[in-house]
UniProtKB/TrEMBL annotation:
Its cofactor is FAD. GO terms for molecular function: FAD binding; oxidoreductase activity. The keyword Flavoprotein applies. SUPFAM superfamilies: FAD-binding/transporter-associated domain-like. This is FAD-binding PCMH-type domain-containing protein. It comes from Ampelomyces quisqualis. Gene3D superfamilies: 3.30.465.10. Keywords: FAD, Flavoprotein, Oxidoreductase, Signal. Residues 161-341 form the FAD-binding PCMH-type domain.
Length: 632
């Protein structure tokens, strides 16, 4: 019966929607193709139970059953393979449903498609983000998938689906999103959302799940004269869910404007990036990416398509800008401010220990840089740097790059002179390559773009350090000693100086830590035996990252003083993640989550409300998504 009901849907899905958003901005074509109440009214009550909206999902208290799990393959009630095939044959779905295989499956006999040539190509490109971006399920950080199917030269080894979803809807209309979401909610199947898969914590993964893949929604519209209900007047872009940072940067350059994106060009712009806050090289002028969002089109937990803005569902609009991805709805497009282009000075350089440059001299010179963070940030600049522990036990500092928007070569040299002069006085040799670019994208293109992902050799985490640590000499000493000790203990670290503050004076859910920060640092615990690490070795690395690397940073940048962690690039095992990731906003976010998604349709690890759920994945050594999702 259930299968036959699906076939009745094919003649009923039509478009009866308002084609305008507001401010005379039209919906994208794919947003006009919606599932409506009129369509569902043509079906029987039984049919509507599967495909219908849930008008009780909003403003209703739902008491979940403790221990109850989302339906998974093998459970009674989970649709059969034939049911999914018939679903896919309907004209509304039209072949967009995918029964995925792991990206590396050509390396194995177990999937019946071993292909030595394909396996070699996948292996050679495994660190390339675009390989994973173009795949409907692959994650750029396979540790959190469970490493169940890595590319290996052993075709007889085991390759399992693991925490890759069971089915994927390659959505190209709002109706596709609504149908997938309604089926998952009404049948109590786990739902996940993937754009590119660039997530350190595995939020686009879920064993047995139905996944909504937004990657192929690529519409992008420049609006020269936009007027927002927030009071903003100026240029803007309307950006579809599948547009990457690279694509919007290129469009901005064509239109002689700048947008606030990140440094990894493979990241999806209108998804986890801005919903996580989105730190950006332009933060010294325009704050966080989320601060620049003027409207969001999305499908909410009840299956309805809405616009969230300052005057339309303002509580949801507040939450989705910084309150985390895969949490509030399925975003189909956003409107983001575009700013005038300005010149960018970018400078790269490095220096190392060796010869007369001892580690102590190295750190004396590096300390001067840290001391200057308030001055550098107040000059609207941003930097991205690494301190490497080399195989010969030497240290190397790499600036890649120092980013100075709105500066000239002369003003940059004057700003940086106290540090450069001090390095030279210590005998530290370095040769800056400093270039003036006349707009954002050429500067970006020259300095970023060699992004690599997909490694299973280490566990990353980060800490946000508050400005108050620079305003109190005692706090600065403790902070710098903790950072220096991380390096001297043999750990590579990377990071940024930046001060997004709240430069556009907006009210949203961006973590309070980002409103007070001067620095954001990344630490890494390496895995013994790399991708072949055992569960015990994984547990050891988790402990090292959480306690030995991030623990001392946490001590000198506690949440009570506006320390925190960037939720998009975090340690999945971060203790007290609610306050660490979301700052003082978490309590309000939790209330909004209960209002808009009381049944827990949207789950992602460490997302708002996720403490009410657990993934029963066994003993992997760290949190993966390779297990049933159940209420705590």
């Amino acid at each position: 019966m259930w299968r036959s009901h699906l076939l009745l849907l094919i003649v009923h899905v039509v478009c009866r929607v308002d084609a305008t958003l507001f401010s005379n901005v039209t919906l994208f074509g794919y947003e006009k193709a919606q599932l409506t109440d009129h369509d569902l009214a043509q079906l029987s009550a039984e049919h509507q139970a599967y495909f219908g909206f849930d008008d009780s999902a909003i403003n209703t208290t739902f008491a979940g059953v403790s221990g109850a799990c989302k339906l998974a393959p093998g459970d009674d009630g989970f649709p059969s393979a034939r049911t999914w095939e018939e679903f896919n044959a309907t004209s509304i779905v039209n072949g967009t449903l995918i029964a995925p295989k792991p990206l590396a499956s050509p390396c194995y006999n177990s999937w019946g498609e071993y292909n030595e040539r394909k396996c070699a190509a996948i292996t050679a490109n495994w660190m390339n983000p675009y390989l994973h971006e173009a795949d409907p399920t692959s994650s750029m950080f396979p540790l959190y998938q469970g490493r169940t199917c890595l590319p290996r030269p052993d075709p007889n080894a085991t390759c399992e689906l693991g925490s890759y979803p069971k089915y994927v809807m390659n959505v190209s209309t709002v109706a596709h999103v609504q149908i997938a979401l309604n089926i998952a909610r009404n049948m109590d199947i786990r739902l996940v959302i993937k754009n590119t898969g660039h997530d350190f914590l595995g939020k686009s993964l879920g064993a047995g799940a139905l996944s909504i893949w937004t990657h192929n929604m690529k519409d992008l519209q420049f609006i020269a004269n936009y007027k927002s209900d927030s009071g903003y007047e100026g240029s803007a872009f309307k950006v579809a869910a599948g547009v990457t940072v690279r694509e919007i940067y290129q469009a901005a350059e064509r239109n002689n404007v700048t947008v606030t994106g990140g440094i990894c060009e493979s990241v999806g712009f209108a998804g986890g990036y801005f919903t996580g806050g989105g730190h950006t090289p332009m933060s010294g002028y325009y704050g966080m990416a989320a601060d620049n969002i003027e409207a969001v089109n999305l499908v909410t937990a009840d299956g309805r398509f809405i616009t969230a803005s300052n005057t339309s569902h303002p509580d949801l609009f507040w939450a989705i800008r910084g309150g985390g991805g895969s949490t509030w709805g399925v975003v189909t497009s956003v409107i983001v401010r575009a700013h005038p282009n300005m010149p960018i000075v970018a400078s790269t350089f490095s220096y190392s220990t060796g010869g007369n440059i001892t580690k102590e001299i190295f750190w004396q010179g590096t300390r001067k840089f840290w001391e200057m963070f308030p001055t550098l940030a107040d000059a609207h600049t941003y930097s991205y740097f690494w301190i490497y522990v080399l195989p010969n036990d030497q240290l190397q500092f790499q600036m890649v790059p120092f980013w100075a928007p709105g500066h000239t070569i002369e003003s940059f040299n004057k700003l940086i002179a106290p540090w450069f002069d001090y390095l030279r006085s210590l005998g530290i040799q370095f040769t800056p390559k400093t270039t003036l670019h006349h707009s954002f994208y050429p500067a970006y293109n020259d300095n970023w773009g060699n992004e690599t992902v997909g490694a299973s050799t280490g566990l990353p985490g980060n800490r946000i350090f508050p400005r108050s640590n620079w305003e109190c000499p005692e706090k600065f000493e403790r902070m710098f000693a903790a950072i220096k000790n991380t390096s001297m203990s043999g750990h590579t670290l990377g990071g940024y100086h930046q001060a997004p503050q709240n430069r556009l004076n907006v009210d949203n859910a961006v973590s309070s830590a980002f409103r007070h920060t001067l620095s954001f640092l990344i630490g890494m615990a390496l895995l013994e035996d790399g991708e072949n690490a055992t569960q015990a070795q994984m547990q050891k690395a988790v402990k090292e990252l959480t306690e030995d690397i991030l623990g001392p940073w946490r001590d000198v940048a506690p949440e009570s003083e506006f320390g925190g962690s960037y939720l998009n690039e975090a340690n999945v095992m971060e203790p007290g993640w609610q306050r660490s990731f979301y700052g003082t906003q978490y309590e309000r976010l939790a209330e909004i989550k209960k209002k808009w998604d009381p049944k827990g349709v949207f789950y992602a690890t460490t997302a708002v409300g996720s403490e009410e759920w657990e993934v029963r994945d066994g003993e992997w050594g760290t949190q993966t998504q390779n297990g049933k999702l159940c209420r705590v």
